[in-house]
Amino acid sequence: IATKYLKDYQATSYLVDTIDLKFEIKDTFVIVTSKTKYQQNGASNSLELAGSAELKSVIIDGNELTDYKLADDKLSLNNLSANFTLEIVTHVDAFNNKSCMGLYASNGNLFTQCEPEGFRKITYYLDRPDVMAKFTTTIIGDKDLYPVLLSNGNKISEKTLANNQIEVIWEDPYKKPSYLFALVAGKFAFIDDTFTTKSGRKVKLEVYSEAESINQCQHCLESLKRAMEWDEKRFNLEYDLDVYMIVASGDFNMGAMENKGLNIFNTKYVLAETKTATDTDFINVEAVVGHEYFHNWTGNRVTCRDWFQLSLKEGLTVFRDQEFTADLHSRTVKRIQDVKNLRQMQFTEDASPLSHPVRPESYMEINNFYTMTVYEKGAEVVRMYQTILDKEGFNRGLALYFERHDGYAVTCEDFCKAMADANKIDLSQFMLWYSQSGTPHLAISDHYNEATKEYSITFKQSIPNNPTAKAMLIPVSIGLILDNGKNIIPDIKNHNTIVRDNEVILLLNEAENTFIFGGISEKPTPSILRGFSAPVIINYAYDEKQLYTLARHDNDSFNRWEALQSIYKTEINRIYHSESPDKFEINQNITKIISELLNDATIDPALKALSINLPAFAELSISYPNTDVKKLVGSIKRLKSAIANGLETQLLAVYKDNQTVSYDFNDAGKRALKNTLLGYLMQGNNTGKSIELVAAQYKNADNMTDKIGALSAINDIDSPVRHQLLDNFAQEYANYPLVMDKWFSLQSQSQLPDTIDNVANLLNHPSFDKENPNKLYSLVRAFTANPIYFNTDAGYNFIAEEIIRIDSFNPGVAGRIANGFSSIANYESKYQTLVKPQLQKIMAKENLSRDVYEIISKTLQ
Ligand code: B3K
Ligand code: ZN
């Protein structure tokens, strides 16, 4: 299997002006005719087109070609003129396509997914992002089976043909790469609205889904309007077509896809209604709707030159959706959630054999690079530009980026250069964030000079699993806090610092940097990396008193949360290394500060919930070389139950205080807190009483958040009530696939000893579908995050067998599940011994996909 390298990039020998596509939907397949106008670009008169559909005919300027060369999914054409029209006919086996890539059927409706390389499954083309063309799409199908026929751009004609056929023609006035092409055909209901842009253009907004779920689409439509308005206000970016369509599909490999004017979404990110969606689902739908909408500028108008630059559009667009959620809801809550996610998923990726830079330099299968690193670390990289340049400077850079590159396919250098030029600064060192893999660590030491009243702090940067890494430009936001809790804005003596409003940002740029602050009356406690100003791991030997000072008095709310996390991490570490973790007596200061926090009326409940949430296994495991999985899980649990027992009365009281009367989304914080507390209470000794609470909450719940909260709390408890509630839930929601996904996930995550058998049996549950990506993610992939039961012989075997099964029809999903094996590299060697034969078994599968081959071969290394 070949590896592709960034350094080998070359422009194509021909470019495309226009492409006219015709789709004739037949009973068992689709006839696709593409008519493309090519134009020479350079000296070569040969052309290689990517394609894997059944090729029926090749016509160049009206003459049928018979001696074409077709091999390895490539059509080679030679001795071409400088300009020519190529007409290609293919038959696409859409109805048997279970890969959810290219043109495929889902519940009788047809959808496309072309990013990154799905278009080649439809026709033969220069299927790469730097080839941009104007698309016209004609769709012909049976009026009863396919009353709705959609594609990108504006509908320019619709007519009825003979034999109950209809023909619809769409024209997209904007040049685009093939990955943004989309087609939808089938039976759908829709809801609509209009949005008037700031320059006064009226845009039609339409959300399509199957008729039975159309009543769950309103939140999606409202979210779209909020996104459009926000992007105008925050970034001065306006929508550019007359219509914006979102279509929901129950079979989708990812979250959603930003096809020009015609987004196709996983139902998971469209459907949301109180009875079936949790508060988190509501926020996620809004965020993904925003994300895909924001791509219209950051991705579609300005796209990527090649797939190595994927983070150019994804990192930037994730940053934009994070800001959207932060502006509309709580900024601190959003930041904490994003950082938790980054630590649990991206830091672990970076500590695994699959570690790669934000801009990878090579790949076997690009589908494997829609990763946490490209997306989430990529977003942190974009955030750092804003931290360094401030909002105004960042917006200037973004405006220059669009001014220079609108309508083009560009690189990460182009983005960096726009930021640098618009602000007249040199950002060349910053480019290392795109090329160096691994999470930077900062070893920090400090010194207070009583005589001079100077405080100095020294940072040594390094990337442990990337020893040749060069020193990067790292913005470290910092504050100093005195023993009495006073936050001071220090008088800084160095040049490479930014002081703005109440913020001091140190710009680290060497292997070792020291900063000196003057006029400090006593040895302060440093509040380092405020707001998580860079995606790094900091190592500073805080003593207990300092951590409590920060947790109580830091005026950076993120770092108050962070200090509590450090307190928990320290304690978990002590439990982990103690003689008998089960009997470990925890530090009473922890229960004391939690008690204080819960009593503090000035803190919003969502933040309280996050503050008492312990760090997750995945986040902690990377800091335990050769992790003893069971011991670490047990240590976290020990701390949780000790807190539950120490504070039982108060937890119960706060639980009761945070009950909500009738459902209002604005009470989401209270529900988050209440459900977190219920989870705690269930870990305490008073199990009988807690089970009653769970049962009552479940019974009285008027919303999905509280039902799932109850089920999660009891999910690890071996009690008949757990079974009753799960059964009841399955009956009530049998006809709601997305709700059943939650039910499968819960069981897959359970810490009860029958989990492996149960998960294997659930594959045959009537609500399960062995070919549906959402189902596979909620049961099979979710199981790879079950530390105790995945990391067993039977667990590894189960996942290996599933990967082999799924790989034959959906390599994309199989690859994503295969990712689950990569974290084992950090665990005790006995786990590696156990998993090796399973990985070898996967490698031995005939016709193993590139997707799985790449992941497993790298994991085995
Ligand atoms: N751009 C799409 C990615 C689809 C890739 C599928 N293998 C989703 C998004 O980031 O918006
Ligand atoms: Zn995206």
TrEMBL record:
Organism domain of life: Bacteria
Recorded catalytic activity of this chain's protein: Release of an N-terminal amino acid, Xaa-|-Yaa- from a peptide, amide or arylamide. Xaa is preferably Ala, but may be most amino acids including Pro (slow action). When a terminal hydrophobic residue is followed by a prolyl residue, the two may be released as an intact Xaa-Pro dipeptide
SUPFAM superfamilies in UniProt: Leukotriene A4 hydrolase N-terminal domain (SSF63737), Metalloproteases ('zincins'), catalytic domain (SSF55486)
InterPro entries: Aminopeptidase_N-like_N, Aminopeptidase_N-like_N_sf, PepN_Ig-like_sf, Peptidase_M1, Peptidase_M1_dom, Peptidase_M1_pepN, Peptidase_M1_pepN_C, Peptidase_M1_pepN_C_sf
Stored CDD domains: M1_APN
Alphabetized NCBIfam families for the sequence: pepN_proteo
Official protein name in the record: Aminopeptidase N
Organism, scientific name: Aquella oligotrophica
